[in-house]
Amino acid sequence: MKIEEYFQTLPDQIISGEDVDLSTDSLKEILKFAELSNGQKFYHLGCGNGDSLSLAITEFHAENAIGIDNDEKKILKLKEKLKEEDLTNCDALCQDVLDVNLDDADVILFWFTDETIIENMLKKFETLKDGVKIITLWGPLPGYLPDKVDFPFIINQKPFKKAKNLQEQLLAVFETKCVDFVTAWEFAERYTNAISPPNSENNRFVTIIQSLVIWINAKNLGVACGDEIPIPIKNYMSILREYFNIEIDHLLK
């Protein structure tokens, strides 16, 4: 089967990122990376269990931390948690992220994969005050160059910098002149470690898939190192095809 067909066999939440909560260590890295500090207002869009909110207040001394999620059960549970921890400068709102008012935000964590949501939120982000930082995972805001990268964590800061093209954007993310297999593997592993539980039995498989996706995207955009397909890429494509019946070769243009 083609890899797109394989993805369709997985639960929707795995593809969309829904119900995937980042680890405490990853959240700490994100907030440190964003330089969240005293007096700032932090928003987590799609906040899940809300661990980021308590960290923002107790360890980074933000003035306020607000979590947004459209899952009422999650929000009710989070409100109870915030009450138990006596975090009066935190709030949890059951709301669609497209409707939330972000005018006073200083730092926003935004991890979504739905293209429609991303496009609509981008319009919203473009109206925010200068200086606000938008933290994403894996890729920057569409059409813009990242201001700061610690892959898979990426910051776009208002006013946003337009990218000339996808090639320029990709090379800015990977901070290199071209993408080879080693770069693809390293960055795929960083992403896997950031979003997966430690020592998860699926981590290796996810890293293989992500490294292939990174390299193939680079190749199709003309920013891979060299003209030949690296031997490790050929080998992993063969492994997926022979042992998992997953076809990925067709993605190469």
Index terms:
253 residues, alpha/beta, Rossmann fold, 2 domains, seven-stranded mixed β-sheet, two-stranded antiparallel ribbon, 43% helix
Can you put this structure into words, describing what you see?
- The chain is α/β, with parallel strands linked by helices.
- The chain folds into two domains: 12-163, 3-Layer(aba) Sandwich (Rossmann fold); 173-251, no CATH class.
- It is built from ten helices and nine strands.
- It has helices at residues 3-8, 12-16, 24-33, 51-58, 72-84, 115-125, 166-174, 181-195, 203-220, 231-244; strands spanning 41-45, 64-69, 90-94, 107-110, 133-137, 144-145, 148-150, 153-157, 161-162.
- The strands form two sheets. Strands 3-2-1-4-5-8-7 form a seven-stranded mixed β-sheet, with helices on both faces. The protein has a two-stranded antiparallel ribbon with strand order 6-9.
- Helix 3 (24-33) packs across helix 4 and helix 8 packs across helix 9 (203-220).
- The longest helix is centred in the last third of the chain and has 18 residues, at 203-220.
- The protein starts with a helix and ends in a 9-residue tail after the last helix.
- The model is unreliable at 13-17 (pLDDT under 50).
